[in-house]
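[worker-b] picked up task from shared queue
[worker-b] task type: protein-ligand structure
[worker-b] ligand name resolved to adenosine-5'-diphosphate; SMILES cross-checked against name lookup, match
[worker-b] sequence length check passed
[worker-b] input payload:
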Amino acid sequence: MGNCLDSSAKVDTAQSSFGTLGSGVSKISSKTSPSSAPSRLTIPSSSERSNGSSLPTPRTEGEILSSPNLKAFSFNELKNATRNFRPDSLLGEGGFGYVFKGWINEHTLTAAKPGSGMVVAVKKLKPEGFQGHKEWLTEVNYLGQLYHPNLVKLIGYCLEGENRLLVYEFMPKGSLENHLFRRGPQPLSWATRMKVAIGAARGLSFLHEAESQVIYRDFKASNILLDSEFNAKLSDFGLAKAGPTGDRTHVSTQVMGTQGYAAPEYVATGRLTAKSDVYSFGVVLLELLSGRRAVDKTKVGLEQNLVDWTKPYLGDRRKLFRIMDTKLEGQYPQKAAFTAATLASQCLCAESKLRPTMSVVLATLEQLEAPKTAARNSQSEQQTLSVPHRRSPMRQHHSPLNITPSASPLLSHRQSPRVR
Ligand SMILES: Nc1ncnc2c1ncn2[C@@H]1O[C@H](COP(=O)(O)OP(=O)(O)O)[C@@H](O)[C@H]1O
Ligand SMILES: [Mg+2]
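[worker-b] inference finished, payload out:
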């Protein structure tokens, strides 16, 4: 790990600031995404080396769209479900589309009166030409086949003329980005931050461990959605890509992703591996710890780039507090915060091979949660006098320090992944 920190320090100086990529980088979402949000980026197709054969099970558009798990909606149905895409039901805006709240009948899946039936989120792609259609189809392809509690559920789609829409389960708490960086909502407690990190790690780990590996390629706070209990689900599969197969170590492809989150070696070479997602996970973990954006143009110099700014503090137990989110008001267990910071710096290792896999990341985060479960168990043991004294299997862990009293209990909701 020491090596990792040393080498990442060298490479990050040269590569982690995307501004240094110069004119080769174009911000394809700059015309559509909110100005405060990080820009998606792409390197023009001169670097495109994909032969298109990387998908283990290439499917035709017809096959993708005839998925039995998905409903094909008419444009009119979705117009009615969203009250004609009323601006006041806008849930969010990403690089490729506007997302509206809508209502459908949960049995027939036809448009329902606002306030009745099932709430859905309807993403309407801005007409962007071929790239927009390609990403839309990629999302239908993956989310139509993959099912996991930490991936957002796709209910259906609409393809009619120029219109491209997607219908998802509604995620009441919106995106992680809204909670971490926007003024207004109650700041997230330490326990909730860890719960979100664990949920997102489960989602990524499921994709990486799947029989046909999937690389997510756009892991960032705005693509992590939250249900009413802050369970995290990955959304926005427009850039997902099949992982390398056979003896191949990587997939060579056009560089796509988001400034500040994409792994430096991927940006430099176009070589994509699951470890590129691990790097992005490290960036989001830093955002959870610090409450700061991956790239923040309102800051000066080094502080604009979260990875560069936090690096000197991550490995120093006594200095770590300097980068911790002040909105936590010191209410976090110091030991767990240090472990999470160490994990983040491992994920950000310049040498991609030295980064941990997502299953190791997940196991490490689950360990951080374990002492809390132990503390809860021992508390309920004390309250239940009639129960004979039992040793909790978690007893060997120390209780966390400074846990916020208002922190919600963390439920373990691990479920075995399945492909539908
Ligand atoms: N299912 C959903 N429930 C609630 N809000 C959503 C949902 N899907 C997306 N959003 C909101 O819309 C934003 C953009 O969605 P996203 O799928 O990332 O679009 P894009 O592909 O344009 O980036 C998200 O950051 C989130 O705030
Ligand atoms: Mg998005």
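[worker-b] attaching auto-annotations
[worker-b] The longest helix spans residues 358-383.
[worker-b] releasing lock
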